[in-house]
Amino acid sequence: MNFHTRKWVKPEDLNPNGTLFGGSLLRWIDEEAAIYAIVQLGNQRVVTKYISEINFVSASRQGDIIELGITATEFGRTSITLTCEVRNKITRKSILTVEKMVFVNLGEDGLPAPHGRTEIRYVKDQFKDDEPIA
């Protein structure tokens, strides 16, 4: 799993119990997963279709640095399925897991459109065939 995004848990991210508010974390996950899907599918028009059960494993507190990990697990004709883990950057202790997130690729008309992808694209491979940037 690739852990690309890190967040610093600040006072405005806390719930009344003094731990990370689940809604803030879910917003961060949805945004990170959407960006991942956009990069993988090469299209900025993607929407969240489904998020499976969310398993909160442990709490995160103010001052913690957390990291979000996302990996593609399946490519459908018009969709991409991801899995997610959030962990404490320092302790590596898992905070949350999401087994399945499905994003749908949309065409210019706003309807599901085939994306033609079948495997994970890595940054190092994305620019092989492109013209050099001047």
Automatic annotation (TrEMBL):
It comes from Pseudomonas chlororaphis subsp. aurantiaca. SUPFAM superfamilies: Thioesterase/thiol ester dehydrase-isomerase. GO terms for cellular component: cytosol. PROSITE patterns: HOTDOG_ACOT. Belongs to the acyl coenzyme A hydrolase family. This is Acyl-CoA thioesterase. Residues 1-109 form the HotDog ACOT-type domain. Pfam families: 4HBT (PF03061). GO terms for biological process: acyl-CoA metabolic process; fatty acid catabolic process.
